[in-house]
Design goal:
alpha+beta, two-stranded antiparallel sheet, 2 helices, elongated
């Protein structure tokens, strides 16, 4: 989880205000040797209101970095 958090923080950039791991699951449903980690990310700017488009872009950067750096994928 520490490596995943490191990747998230690096990819999310300066708008990430808070990152919290709120669920960890291991079991047959996700496969042997795998873990399902669920995070809450809060983005905020002190200067302005963020748009949905900006936050979607930040989220996509995080998802891409997780896929490339740790082989992560979104849980559907």
């Amino acid at each position: 989880a520490a490596r995943v958090e490191e990747v998230i923080r690096r990819a999310a950039g300066g708008l990430l205000e808070r990152l919290e791991l709120f669920d960890l699951y291991q079991g047959e449903q996700i496969g042997a040797g795998k873990k399902s980690l669920a995070y809450s990310l809060v983005y905020r700017s002190g200067e302005r209101t963020l748009t949905d488009e900006e936050v979607r872009g930040e989220r996509q950067r995080v998802v891409t970095a997780l896929q490339e750096d740790v082989g992560g994928s979104l849980r559907q």
